[in-house]
Amino acid sequence: MGTTSSRPAILADPGSSLSFTKTNFNSIQITATGATADTAATGEICITPRYQV
User: Fold this and answer.
1) How many angstroms separate the CA atoms of 33 and 4, rounded?
2) How many CA atoms lie within 13 A of 26 on its CB side?
3) Helices then strands, each counted (H, E), the chain
4) Taking a C-beta distance cutoff of 8 angstroms, is the pair 41, 47 a contact?
5) Quick one: pLDDT at residue 23?
6) How far is CA 6 from CA 2, 3, 20, 43, 48, in A?
7) Contact 2/27 with Cβ under 8 angstroms?
8) Using CA atoms, how far apart are residues 52 and 41, in angstroms rounded to an integer?
């Protein structure tokens, strides 16, 4: 199912925000470190395309 980038992951500290530019991708994977079945991860993600999709 697609490919995985061999480049380093983009990491964000809890409570922070970040921006970046990435081209030629077809999926996004988000991993919440420290999340468990008893302590689910919560938060928001906003993706703003700069060009027509």
Assistant:
1) 18
2) 4
3) 0, 0
4) no
5) 81
6) 13, 9, 17, 26, 24
7) yes
8) 31
Q: How far apart are CA 18 and CA 12, in angstroms?
A: 7
Return the pLDDT at 52. Answer: 76
In the 8-state DSSP scheme, what is residue 9? P
- pLDDT one-digit tens code per residue, 1-53: 555 566 678 888 878 888 888 888 778 888 887 788 898 888 888 888 877 76
Alpha carbon separation from 18 to 1, 5, 6, 15, 21 (Å, rounded) = 27, 19, 21, 10, 11
The reported pLDDT for the residue numbered 16 is 85
What's the rounded Cα separation, in Å, for the pair 53 and 37? 35
pLDDT at residue 3 in the model: 54
